[in-house]
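tool_call: predict_structure(chain=1)
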Amino acid sequence: MENSKGINRLIRTEECLKILDFIPSPMAIVGLDSLIEWANLSALKLLGYGSREEIIDKKVTDFIHPDYREAFLKREEEVFDGNGRKGEKIKFLRKDGTVFWGVLHSKPLTDKEGKSTGAIGCLQDMTNYIQTEQTHRNITELEGLKFMSENFK
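tool_result:
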């Protein structure tokens, strides 16, 4: 009887992963060894990969900009210890080496006894937001320079 429950649980898990493929937000599951165990199609696209086979068993830190890896590893341990993280702004790397800003939300995954088995993360690409923010700062700076040149001759 227990075996059939385990099989049913596995089938439900596989069905859930298929559903997650249709979610537009990039998502991934990472094991306690920091290896990617699964990623949805949106994550593959954002990171520049064509198939799951290319990304499975890669270290999650392979996708984190070197300047952010140490802090990321500390946060990852906190997630594995049972503390979800919201809104971690991090620089990421795509397969081709290009950099992009993202916000990572992470939640620990546990077995039926409550023991940590890894984490699930949802990534929000912030590239357009950061670019818009920078453009706004540039415009504000130019307006200030224009004001100064017009009023302090």
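agent: Strands lie at 27-31, 36-39, 85-93, 99-110, 116-125. Proceeding to next step.
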